[in-house]
Amino acid sequence: MMSHGRLGIHAVCAALWAWCVLLSFPLITLNVDLVEATNEYYSLGAESSLVVLSQIGGLALFLITAAAVFQLRAIQTLAHLSFAAIGILAIFVLSIAIQWHDDELKTMIGVVYTLLLLVTSLLLSSLWSMSAGDLERFLTGAAIIFCSFGVAAIAILGWPEGRSVGNIHPNGFATPLLAAFILSQFRPGWISVVIRLLSIGMIALVSSRFALIGCIAAVVAHEATLRPLSLGKTLAAIVAVSAGAAFWGDIAGVLAIDDPDRGLSSGFSGRDYYWQQSLGAIADHPFGIGFKRTVIGEEGGHNGYLKTLLEFGVPGGGLIICFFACIIAAAGLEAIATLGKDRQQHQFACARFGGLVALAFGAFFQPQLLSLGDAFAMSFLFLLFRPRAMSIFPARTDNTNEIRPEPRSFA
């Protein structure tokens, strides 16, 4: 087994970067009819075998590497998770009981998916045991990879035709870019600024409104808590609110918030159809049908929250959503509480809060809140399951394998 030293940290970072590559770059190879992609892009039936195999391979590589490096530390993080996070994990375990219906193969697949969700959550949580410097480098690397995907896709497939880059659905193209934007906020400096500008620019090219508004929400939440009392930000906020009120009609037109011409899967005016279909399915199965036991289309409502209610039931799914809201609120309070303390600790707290706010909004328009096969879900699980205090974990080792405790805590 690998030690939790420099070699192990490098191995985990490499595995995670490889997972980021395999979650994004294979999308360039998609070859599906764009009409079908509007509704079926996120289902396995519409994805090429390379995309599916890449998702599986990336997840397996990360799980094997992280389990070998962190060993029992993934279990130890349980003692340092918030009560809300532990509650979500407990619901994952209890939801296995609702998997036992229909044929045996579907039941087995549902149980395996649920266990993988649990293990992945714990191992992603263990990443917070790395030193602040290592974690910052890892997140910057992941942001660069996701942003590079957008650049490579446009370079290979050409400028968007309509809203799609090649055969990549606009939201599928924008999801890794939203993750790049969120993860880049963990590090200050010009590299992160460039990543954010490129990401939001490419998102605007395909007019992915959930990702565009998500980026705006992330930067507003991040900057509002990072240095909230600065004169420049106060003046910028006043100007932004005034401009928004004066030009709201133009802004709504650019975002096409209520545009039925973009199809049933787009905008508030179209997705309410899917939401009604999903509410009917939830009424038929109030106690849930199990994780990964439903398609993402009409039954799932193309809405992460509705799909969570359908899969985990009204009691279980409702608690997951409630716990998620509690974690966001706690993240906001932490971002405020760390103001004036350690710079990097405060930067991380503000970036995490901004990312959770962005993903919380995006979940209304993403087909899945909980998943294992896209950048949205990977970012969500990483930000969601952050232990309250990581100072008990070793952060630095030298050639003598002496463990030196990390003096800071990300509490």
Q: Can you give a write-up of this model?
A:
With 411 residues, the protein is an all-alpha fold. The protein has one domain. Helix content is 65%, strand content 2%. It contains 16 helices and 2 strands. It has helices at 6-24, 34-40, 49-70, 73-76, 83-94, 104-126, 132-157, 170-184, 190-205, 209-226, 231-246, 248-255, 268-284, 304-337, 343-362, 375-384; strands at residues 394-397, 403-405. Strands 1-2 form a two-stranded antiparallel ribbon. The two termini are 29 Å apart. Mean pLDDT is 78; it is low at 32-47, 260-269 and 390-411.
Give keywords.
411 residues; two-stranded antiparallel sheet; 16 helices; mainly alpha
